[in-house]
Amino acid sequence: MPSFTAITQVALSVLLLAGAASPMAAQRPIKVFISVDMEGIGGVVTSEQLSPSGFEYAKFREYMTAEALAAIAGAREAGATEFVVADAHGNMQNLLIDRFPAGVTIVRGSPRPLMMMEGIDSTFSAAMFIGYHSGTSNTQGVRAHTISSATFSAVTLNGQPMSESSINAIIAGSFGVPVVMVSGDEQAVGEVQAFTGNVEGAVVKRSISFHAAAVMTPEGSQALIRAKAKAAVLRLREFKPTPATGPFRLDLSYKSYTPAEVMSYLPGVDRVDAHTIRFRTASIRDVSRFLEFAITYRADLTP
């Protein structure tokens, strides 16, 4: 008969093997990428909240930061362990980085090849869009535009009107990362859900016009975002990455004639009409780089 010691050793070995094979033991860390824009932050309705020259900008930097922190808190409650946050509005230097907990990486400044999605890679489990707005073809959303409200009247990819959220969802998909949650007005949330599937949506305001909305209080917006971020991570296995298979045909329609003419001088760029250029590529990441060039390059760039 085996000794008691031998039986105990066998039992411990079986338990250790079972633990190593369990789903919890084998599960990789849950990394979450959070892209934070500003037009969709609760309470934002005009440039007075969006630009450093606006009288409410300093206050709304705080609200933008607080909504990003709410998403982190909710995701952490559901088991997320690592975070990269991309400051994705204007000069991309809006978030108050001293408010974030240790261990969070913040991407800020521009230009950057992946624009609003700089910092994402295939190690992430999920992407979240905080403070997003609807696309330029939307007639109802607050501050609806794509990439630049002052520059483009239309942005399409393979003939389909694009919002920033749809472009960014494809970029995330190219790394195998699903979008799981979005916050903004009901138009922005609806666009993401229509494009990517039934992601968690935090509607923090209801659009009235381009520059008007019925808004929640900051406390209410942050509580809703925290709850939706937590729900998204708990549902993580339900989400699939957005397909990112090329080729891609990007059409940019400028509000002015001259940019379209000058951009058409680039090799590989065709002028479709007086205001529109076309760029073709096999990679959504090349689309992102081209868009960054289109909105950033100036002849007087220094240093």
How does this structure look, described?
By secondary structure, the protein is an alpha/beta fold. The protein has a domain at 28-137 and 164-238: Dipeptide transport protein (Rossmann fold). It contains eight helices and twelve strands. Strands 3-2-1-4-7-8-9 form a seven-stranded mixed sheet, with helices on both faces. Strands 6-5-10-12-11 form a five-stranded antiparallel sheet. A hairpin with a 2-residue loop joins strand 5 and strand 6 (160-161). Helix 3 (57-77) runs parallel beside helix 6 (218-234).
Please tag this protein with its features.
303 residues; seven-stranded mixed β-sheet; five-stranded antiparallel β-sheet; 8 helices; 12 strands; globular
In short:
By secondary structure, the protein is of the alpha/beta class. It has helices at residues 4-21, 23-26, 57-77, 164-174, 186-196, 218-234, 257-263, 284-296, and strands at 31-36, 82-87, 105-107, 126-132, 152-157, 160-161, 179-185, 200-209, 212-215, 248-254, 269-271, 276-281.
Fold topology:
Layout: H1 4-21, H2 23-26, E1 31-36, H3 57-77, E2 82-87, E3 105-107, E4 126-132, E5 152-157, E6 160-161, H4 164-174, E7 179-185, H5 186-196, E8 200-209, E9 212-215, H6 218-234, E10 248-254, H7 257-263, E11 269-271, E12 276-281, H8 284-296
